[in-house]
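=== RUN LOG ===
request id: a7f3
mode: sequence -> structure
chains: 1
length: 306
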Amino acid sequence: MKAVVCTRYGPPEVLQVEERATPVPRRNEVRIRILATAVTSSDCYVRGLNLSPAYRLMARLAFGWSAPRQPVLGMVLSGEVDSVGPDARSLGVGERVFGFNRHRFGTYAQYVCWPEDGLLATRPANLTDDEAAAIPYGGLLALNFLRKGNVRAGQRVLVYGASGAVGTSAVQLARHLGAQVTGVCSAANVDLVASLGATAVIDYTREDFTDGAERYDLVLDAVGRRKSAAALRRCRQVLASGGACVSVDDGTPKLRREDLVLLGELATKGEISPVIDRTYALDDIVDAHRYVDNGHKRGNVVVAVT
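=== RESULT ===
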C-alpha cells in the first residue's frame, strides 16, 4: 500500500511517500480502506516537535527519540471496512466509517487497522468522505472542552480562535447547546464565523475582546496558549460571576465514542457542518503540512487518499 512515512522529526520535508506492506487485522481489529484523512495541528506538532524544551523531551519519550516509533502519522479518517480480524463483531466488511485515534495514528496511508471498539462510528450518509474526515478532530476536542466549561442554554460563550478546526466546531456546538456565541478571529474569517452561528464576531486585529463591556460564562481558547497567551492572561476580567476560562491546552481530553456518534447525528441533521479550507492528494502531503504550519487555515485541511 502507499503510505506517508515520517523519517525523523523536522520540517514537512521529512515526510516521504513509500510503499509499505498492507496491514492485517488482529483480534478485535478491523482494517479500513482510507478514503480521506486530515492534517491536524497535532500531526504537525508530532512531526516537528514544535514544543517547549520540557514538552519536547516528554514527547520524545512518548513517541520515539529521533523519529516517531509509529512512522505513519495521521489521526483521523473516513473510509470503508474491508477486512475484520478474529472476534471482531460490531463492524462488518463494506461499512462506511469515520473516526479518530490519537494513539495509533496511521491514517496517512491507504489502509489502517484499528480496534473496532475504538473511536469509530458510521459515517453520516449525507457527507462525502472528505467532509466526514473534517469532523472528528475539531468536533471531539470542542465537545470535550465545552463540557469542561459546563456550557448550558442561555449562557454567553466566547470562542477565541473561532476559525480553526476546533474553533469552527466549538461555535456550532455551543450554538447547538443553546448558548449565545461570540467568535474571535481575523478580519478574513469574520463572515465564515458568522455563518456558523456566532451572534457576534470580533476581529482581533482591530479590537481586544478583553476591553469590551460584555461578560461571558465561558471563554474557550481554541488555539492554545502559545498563540493566545496575552489574551488568556486578561480573560478573567471579562468573565461573568462563576464564569470559566478553558484552553485546549488544559489537560488530556476525554474523547468518547458516544460523542463521535453524536457528531455524526448532528451532521446528518445539518446541525453542524464540516469546514474545509483545502484538499490535497496524499502525494502532496508535504505541501499540506507546509500550509498547516503557516497557522492560518480555516477549519480543516483534508487529504484525499484515493
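=== NOTES ===
Residues 136-148 form the longest helix (13 residues).
The CA atoms of residues 167 and 222 lie 5 Å apart.
=== END ===
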